[in-house]
């Protein structure tokens, strides 16, 4: 057998020959053409379990999140007013602070120790709370028994913490005391930079009251907050999917109440509404033995939410927050609970995130809205197996591949600049048809005074093996003769602690040396050594292969 034939067989076996035969995807970046601000709306994160904030791994992850962002990171946590009840401790989808109790005479007793420890953790790092006012303390619940839930053991989740207060005046005073205490502890200048909101997803089981009772609670909440701090910002309602009629109507009815309804607390017309928040989720499923993502429904949520806000002309330019912005709806459900969540450990979650957030910029431009934040509902889970398949950013203190996409976003600032590709998949295409035909090979680019940054992804909704795609990236509008090029990569080989862990044999008792290796593998890594590259008439070209579900980040600096 000739050497040439042997070589072909080896190349076919490795997939390299197939990759070389793929047509090159041309991506053109015009750095001279600005299309809008590179708004860091991605710098928002959230989670259910507030007590994990102060744990070692929680503090480590929060530090990393702030370090990767050029602006203060906003953090949203559930259960900041929830009582412990008879629960043994924090659990999946469960946490508590015991901020409010009552003495034997029914007099309120406030205890801010746990709340302060959580907020201190944020403030000490330069982070900001997206302060969720909830859930109902046991002493105030109109149906306190049973109170705590045992969801992780298969129990009912919608228990006493979801009910309206037995006394709205006591609730209002609780909010007033919390805000007033915050000002005394952190100073008004700091507290007025925070964002305050009421509850979570009141259109489903998180709220066991009626729509009218939620509006009443919001009115009393806003009244208590504004009495303590007229300059503080409050918004809502953090409803679920607006792509369906029920979610859309709940959102618009709430806005209508705040604009023109009778205020239950003040008896006047209208209630302060200084930002609007709704949630957007995708919907993965198992198809023929593999995972198929559904980015289209998440983008449809966002588009419909923007449409809802724009239906009120008087709210032009009001800040919008996508209060939970994720590929699906259950961060605390592991891969063992549902196999469709296995996408979270490897490269599909990162590539999905890159492609989805780029389309959020597109929808923001299309609807001409003021998008303030998009909260990735992902943090870390304590006392769980390594790479258990939760929707988290780190496992046992080791960063997962998806966190490196946010590191890439953290290096993008200035103006977004024009990108063109023959691939041409737009947000509208994904909403209507998903990414189930040709792969989505595209880019997002930005420029400041000293650099041009380009994020390139090779995404497909189907988690199946495919050959790498050759990419020819042309960057025009470079006002220098030579640039210094850094090329970072997230794929099976680079910036991937999960693949490193699998190569170790999937240990669950990790040694100190293994832990250090996993930590290193979890960081954002260069594909090649940085190099100087010439620019010819304002243009430079880079060629590289990009694996399926891989993400490259190219930065030209001078």
UniProtKB/TrEMBL annotation:
<feature type="active site" description="Proton donor">
    <location>
        <position position="201"/>
    </location>
</feature>
<dbReference type="InterPro" id="IPR017853">
    <property type="entry name" value="GH"/>
</dbReference>
<feature type="domain" description="Glycosyl hydrolases family 39 N-terminal catalytic">
    <location>
        <begin position="26"/>
        <end position="522"/>
    </location>
</feature>
<dbReference type="InterPro" id="IPR051923">
    <property type="entry name" value="Glycosyl_Hydrolase_39"/>
</dbReference>
<dbReference type="GO" id="GO:0005975">
    <property type="term" value="P:carbohydrate metabolic process"/>
</dbReference>
<protein>
    <submittedName>
        <fullName>Beta-xylosidase</fullName>
    </submittedName>
</protein>
<keyword id="KW-0326">Glycosidase</keyword>
<dbReference type="Pfam" id="PF01229">
    <property type="entry name" value="Glyco_hydro_39"/>
</dbReference>
<keyword id="KW-0732">Signal</keyword>
<dbReference type="InterPro" id="IPR049166">
    <property type="entry name" value="GH39_cat"/>
</dbReference>
<keyword id="KW-0378">Hydrolase</keyword>
<feature type="signal peptide">
    <location>
        <begin position="1"/>
        <end position="19"/>
    </location>
</feature>
<dbReference type="InterPro" id="IPR000514">
    <property type="entry name" value="Glyco_hydro_39"/>
</dbReference>
<dbReference type="GO" id="GO:0004553">
    <property type="term" value="F:hydrolase activity, hydrolyzing O-glycosyl compounds"/>
</dbReference>
<comment type="similarity">
    <text>Belongs to the glycosyl hydrolase 39 family.</text>
</comment>
């Amino acid at each position: 057998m000739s050497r040439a034939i042997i070589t072909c067989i080896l190349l076919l076996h490795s997939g390299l020959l197939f990759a070389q035969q793929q047509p090159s995807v041309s991506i053109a970046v015009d750095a001279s053409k600005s299309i809008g601000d590179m708004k860091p709306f991605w710098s928002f994160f959230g989670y259910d379990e507030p007590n994990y904030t102060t744990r070692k791994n929680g503090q480590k992850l929060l530090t990393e999140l702030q370090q990767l962002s050029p602006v203060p990171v906003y953090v949203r946590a559930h259960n900041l007013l929830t009582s412990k009840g008879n629960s043994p401790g924090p659990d999946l989808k469960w946490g508590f602070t015991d901020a409010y109790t009552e003495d034997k005479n029914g007099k309120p007793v406030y205890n801010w120790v746990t709340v302060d420890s959580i907020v201190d953790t944020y403030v000490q790092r330069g982070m900001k709370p997206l302060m969720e006012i909830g859930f109902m303390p046991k002493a105030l619940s109109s149906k306190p028994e049973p109170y705590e839930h045992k969801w992780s053991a298969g129990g009912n989740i919608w228990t006493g913490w979801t009910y309206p207060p037995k006394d709205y005046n006591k609730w209002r005073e609780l909010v007033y005391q919390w805000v007033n205490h915050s000002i005394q502890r952190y100073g008004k200048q700091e507290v007025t930079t925070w964002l305050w909101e009421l509850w979570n997803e009141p259109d489903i089981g998180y709220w066991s009251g009626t729509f009218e009772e939620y509006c009443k609670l919001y009115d009393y909440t806003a009244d208590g907050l504004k009495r303590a701090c007229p300059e503080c910002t409050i918004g809502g309602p953090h409803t679920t999917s607006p792509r369906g009629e029920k979610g859309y109507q709940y959102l618009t009815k709430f806005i209508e109440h705040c604009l023109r309804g009778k205020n239950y607390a003040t008896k006047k017309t209208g209630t302060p509404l200084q930002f609007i928040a709704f949630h957007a989720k995708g919907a993965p499923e198992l198809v023929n033995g593999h995972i198929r993502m559904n980015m289209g429904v998440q983008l449809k949520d966002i588009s419909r939410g923007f449409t809802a806000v724009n239906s009120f002309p008087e709210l032009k330019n009001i800040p919008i927050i996508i209060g939970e912005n994720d590929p699906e709806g259950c961060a605390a459900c592991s891969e063992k609970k549902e196999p469709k969540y296995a996408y979270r450990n490897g490269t599909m979650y990162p590539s999905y995130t890159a492609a989805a957030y780029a389309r959020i910029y597109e929808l923001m431009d299309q609807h001409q809205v003021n998008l303030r934040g998009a909260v990735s509902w992902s943090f870390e889970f304590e006392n769980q197996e390594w790479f258990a398949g939760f929707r988290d950013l780190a496992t046992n203190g080791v960063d997962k591949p998806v966190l490196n996409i946010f590191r890439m976003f953290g290096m993008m600032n200035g103006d977004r600049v024009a990108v063109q590709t023959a691939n041409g998949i737009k947000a509208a295409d994904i909403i209507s048809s998903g990414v189930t035909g040709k792969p989505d090979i595209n880019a997002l680019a930005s420029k400041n005074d000293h650099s041009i940054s380009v994020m390139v992804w090779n995404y497909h909704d189907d988690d199946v093996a495919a050959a790498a795609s050759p990419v020819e990236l042309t960057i025009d509008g470079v006002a220098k003769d030579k640039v210094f090029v850094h090329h970072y990569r997230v794929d099976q080989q680079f910036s991937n602690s999960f693949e490193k862990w699998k190569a170790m044999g999937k240990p669950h008792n990790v040694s100190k040396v293994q832990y250090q290796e996993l930590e290193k593998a979890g960081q954002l890594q260069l594909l090649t050594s940085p190099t100087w590259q010439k620019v010819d008439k304002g243009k430079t070209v880079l060629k590289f292969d990009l694996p399926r579900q891989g993400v490259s980040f190219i930065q030209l600096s001078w």
